[in-house]
Amino acid sequence: MAMCTKEDYLAELSRCVLEMEEDEVIDVAKAYAEAGHDPLDGILDGLVDGMKKASDLYEREEYFIPELLGCSAAMYNGLDVLRPLLPKSEEGSKGKIVIGVVQGDTHDIGKNLVKIMLESAGYEVTDMGRDVPVEKFVEEVKKQGAKVLALSTLMSTSMKNMGKIIELLKEQGAREGVSVIVGGAPISESFARKIGADGYSANATEAVKLVDRLVAEKSGQSRER
C-alpha cells in the first residue's frame, strides 16, 4: 500500500494491530520510521490506538481473549521496531514502577496498556501480572525501591485489596517513598481518596501524565529536604 502522509501511516499501524497483522505491522512500522516520522507518535497514535480499539471491541464482546492476544502480538512486533528509535532520556530511566492487578481479578488488558505507555514514556516497569496477593506488591516495592505502585482491578469485589496494600505499606514503613495510583472500571477519584491513594487515572494516557506529575512532585520534595 502506498502511503503518503504521516496520518496514513498512523491509521495503517492502528489497523494492523486491530486486525492482528503480526507480519505486516513490522513492514509498516519500518516504512513509517524510514519516512522520518516521530517514533513516539507511531507508538501512541498508531500501535496503542489500535490496541485501545481492540479493547473497546473486547468490552463490547465483539472481540475475545484470542483476538486480544493476536492484537497485542502485533502491537509488540510494531513496538520492537519503533521503541529502539525513541530518544533515550539523558538520565536513563525516569524511575522504577511496580504494576499489577490486585488479588481476586484476572483482567489485565487495561494494566497491559498502562504498562506499555509507561515503558514508552521512559519508566522501568516491573509487571507483577494479575491476581497478585497483597503482600507480594509490598515486597516488590521494597525490593525495587519503586517510585510508583500502580494497581488495577475491574472487579468491585477486589477493590478492598487496594486499601489493604496501602495499609500494609504503612505498617511496614514503606509508604513514604512510593506514590500509589489506582485505576480500573469500578474505581473513582473519591474511592482513591478514601483508601489514601495518591492518584486515580481513568485510562492509560492519563496514567502516564499522573505518574509524571507524582514523580516530579516527589523529587521536588526530596530536594527540599
Question: What order do the helices and strands come in, and which of them pair?
Answer:
Layout: H1 6-18, H2 24-34, H3 39-59, H4 65-82, E1 96-101, H5 109-120, E2 124-127, H6 134-144, E3 148-152, H7 159-171, E4 179-183, H8 189-195, E5 199-200, H9 204-224
Parallel strand pairs: 1-2, 1-3, 3-4, 4-5
Give, in order, the helices and strands: HHHHEHEHEHEHEH
* CATH fold assignment of the largest domain: Rossmann fold
What overall form do the CA principal axes indicate? globular
When the domains are counted, the total is: 2
What is the radius of gyration computed over CA atoms, rounded to a whole number of angstroms?
A: 18 Å
| CATH homologous superfamily grouping of the largest domain | Cobalamin-binding domain
Q: Average pLDDT value?
A: 90
Question: Could you tell me the strand content as a percent range?
Answer: 5-15%
Low-pLDDT regions: none
Do you know the CATH architecture of the largest domain? 3-Layer(aba) Sandwich
How is the biggest beta sheet arranged? 5 strands, parallel
Level of helix content? 55-70%
Separate helix tally = 9
- Report the CATH C-level class of the largest domain: Alpha Beta
Number of DSSP strand runs? 5
Distance between the termini: 57 Å
Q: What structural class should be given to the helix and strand makeup?
A: alpha/beta
Strand line-up in the sheet with most strands: 2-1-3-4-5
